[in-house]
Design a protein that fits this description.
By secondary structure, the chain is mainly alpha-helical. The protein contains 27 helices and ten strands. It starts with a helix and ends with a helix.
């Protein structure tokens, strides 16, 4: 690629719209006038929305070459000798181009109206009002979902709704204020409807929408956008997943990707501004989390622009090759400098004033107790106090520890709990040796699970599930695995991402339970079945409640034992390891955020009460600190599903059928636990 293309400012309409605060038509008109004057020129081979660069004849290329500096600082290992590029907020060439744009007649600073732009969405995107018979409720659901897709364009892309592919989310404080106002308006409309006049199905949809909106409004007190950052939640990780949302099949796909990339730098810079605003208001993350995020970012960015995960494009080879130079130019001129500015802010501004490890919880933030109360309600869908949940975790650990002693005697010839934990944690013979072994074990467990699913389920998903390694830039800093759902349009299968980093630390005995939880019969089966519910409103089909989603996946870990999927007692110890992990989460999450535990207290508790590997414990505690309340959902949801099953078995007796019970649990999507109970109890009454 010619050097001149790298030096010329590469811009897109959406990026200019964001920078100048103008409407989309105004940005297009401004660009058209600049083209006519020979100030900018379209990049050959693109169509609308077109990518532009400064015309070679215009003297805009006098920007100095970005300097380089050593980013090493005490407390930031592995980056002390790394030289990384540091660029100004905008090159002088880009500044001059923007000044020229501001001189174009008709360019104003009026921000675009998100509601007006959302009106261009399809009449009922992705079945927002599927099976709804009441016209007013149908209109409300369509309005709500159209706005949701407009305000969450990357999620829209994931779901196969592609008219927003050229945009990033507006993450400015003004956008957050508009979002709160819009949700309040939707909630008022929902409350004004007469639920008693609706059919049973419409009534349930209205109840779910009210709960959804109320939960969002309650959680707005947390203001996580201006303080929460971690190695799992930062621009580098989020942007690394862009390519899978943009399979390049047509030129329009490529243009949309380039337009979205044109908005990324502004989106990253706004993240930086948000964190500064949070710091000014007394809300900031903890030092260890920020240190890890800086280390992760420095190591990735130091590899250079060509190694940025967001440039690993997918699709038709010829189109990928034609698009990559343009994407690279945007990344080098705009995105890489923005990511470096973000990382600098973390390291030099936030880290020095970050909370120490002994002030890790929400209770140490302004409004933190109210925030945690809202998060507990959201993630459990129940009115449980932190004290109740803390005690529940301790009680569950007592039961699970007793099971450890029974199976430990058979598998390890000891019933001493501390000895069992130490052996499972430290015996090298129980660890993998290579990354390939980790991946192979995941594939084998998944294949065996697929083979027996018809024994426990009457309805199975159409979407395929594949095993993938967690990307290298993310793996050292994240959890042991996660699931990425299939795209509803069939464009991407479900993906079980397993962490193959440092395989000698990955226990063999946890490989099977991990696969069953993340893939089949856990997340992949439940999430795919939900997406395939033609009769469910889109907000439920593609969303749902964490207590159900994670409770189901945890429930299937023991269901897998019923189905004979564990290879032996060592693998059953893996099942107990995971169950103790989820019970201990109840204690640790509430300990950190309600009782003022330090980071080290949380680590020590997990070491004493679970056999989890130390690197897993370290990353998990970081997760609990930065995603408060989410860890509570697993055990609460599992216990409710188990309770419903026991009650159904008792009342139905010989008429109880496990396949039918599972189908009933899964047939309405991921419900709040009280509504799930209503659904199962109705089925039981009908069967008596």
């Amino acid at each position: 690629m010619p050097d001149v293309l790298l030096e010329q400012p590469v811009v897109t309409g959406p990026w200019l719209r964001r920078r100048l605060g103008v409407s989309a038509p105004t940005a297009s008109q401004a660009l058209a006038q600049l083209v006519a004057r020979g100030i900018v020129e379209p990049v050959p081979g693109t169509s609308q929305p077109t990518v532009y660069r400064a015309a070679a004849a215009i003297d805009l290329l006098d920007a100095p070459t970005p300097d380089r500096f050593s980013s090493g600082r005490a407390g930031f290992p592995n980056s002390a000798q790394v030289a990384v590029p540091r660029a100004p907020a905008l090159s002088s060439a880009m500044h001059r181009l923007l000044l020229l744009l501001l001189l174009v007649p008709g360019v104003s600073t009026a921000a675009p109206d998100p509601i007006e732009e959302a009106e261009d969405a399809p009449a009922d995107p992705l079945g927002a009002a599927a099976s709804i018979t009441d016209p007013a409720l149908a209109e409300l659901l369509v309005d709500h979902w159209s706005w949701t897709m407009w305000s969450s364009p990357r999620w829209a892309s994931e779901l196969g709704l592609h008219q927003h592919d050229d945009r990033m989310e507006d993450n400015s404080p003004e956008a957050w204020a508009r979002e709160l106002q819009t949700r309040s308006s939707f909630y008022a409309r929902a409350l004004a409807m007469d639920a008693g006049a609706l059919s049973a199905g419409d009534n349930r949809a209205l109840r779910l929408l009210r709960l959804n909106l109320k939960s969002h409004l309650d959680r707005s007190v947390c203001r996580t956008w201006d303080w929460a950052v971690s190695s799992r939640r930062n621009p580098l990780v989020e942007l690394g997943r862009l390519p899978e949302l943009h399979e390049l099949k047509t030129q329009a796909d490529a243009d949309a990707l380039l337009a979205r990339l044109g908005e990324v730098a502004g989106w990253v810079d706004q993240q930086t501004l948000n964190l500064r605003a949070g710091q000014a208001a007394g809300r900031v993350g903890i030092a260890e989390t920020i240190r890890r995020t800086v280390e992760q970012s420095r190591e990735t960015l130091a590899r250079g622009v060509d190694e940025l995960p967001l440039l690993k494009l997918e699709g038709q080879p010829a189109l990928v090759e034609a698009t990559r130079p343009l994407a690279r130019a945007i990344a080098e001129d705009q995105i890489l400098p923005a990511l470096l500015r973000y990382t600098d802010a973390l390291q030099y501004e936030l880290h020095p004033v970050a909370r120490p490890d002994d002030r890790a919880g929400l209770t140490h933030l302004p409004g933190g107790n109210d925030c945690y109360a809202a998060l507990v309600r959201h993630y459990t869908t129940l009115d449980r106090s932190p004290e109740e949940l803390h005690q529940l975790g301790l009680e569950q650990l007592a039961f699970i520890h007793a099971e450890f002693q029974v199976i430990g005697q058979r598998a390890l010839q000891t019933a001493e709990l501390a000895t069992i934990f130490q052996r499972l944690r430290s015996d090298p013979s129980l660890r993998f040796e290579t990354a390939e072994q980790v991946e192979a074990a995941a594939r084998d467990a998944l294949a065996r699970a697929k083979a027996v699913m018809d024994q426990a389920f009457g309805r199975l998903p159409q979407a395929e599930c594949l095993v993938r390694p967690i990307p290298a830039h993310e793996a050292p800093y994240t959890t042991i695995a996660y699931y990425s759902g299939a795209h509803p349009n069939g464009g991407k299968p479900g993906e079980y991402f397993v962490n193959t980093h440092a395989p000698e630390t990955r226990p063999r005995f946890e490989a099977e339970v991990l696969a069953f939880h993340e893939a089949i019969p856990g997340h992949h089966l439940e999430r795919s079945l939900s997406q395939e519910l033609a009769e469910a409103p889109a907000f439920l089909k593609h969303g749902g409640w964490t207590a159900f989603v994670e409770g189901w996946a945890l429930y299937t870990e023991r269901l897998s034992d019923e189905l004979g999927l564990y290879s032996g007692d060592l693998d059953r110890l893996g099942m107990l390891s995971f169950d103790s992990w989820r019970a201990a989460r109840l204690v640790v999450d509430t300990g950190i955020h309600s009782f003022g535990w330090s980071r080290q207290q949380a680590i020590d508790f997990l070491v004493a009460n679970t056999p989890l590997a130390l690197n897993n414990i370290d990353n998990e505690v970081d997760r609990y600190i930065n995603t408060p309340g989410q860890a509570l959902a697993y055990k609460v949801g599992q216990l409710e599903i188990l309770a419903l099953r026991r009650e159904a078995e008792k009342k139905l007796g010989m008429a109880f059928d496990l396949r039918t019970f599972h189908d009933v649990v899964l047939e309405s999507g991921a419900l709040p636990l009280p509504l799930l109970r209503e659904r199962v109890e109705l089925w039981v009454r009908e069967g008596i």
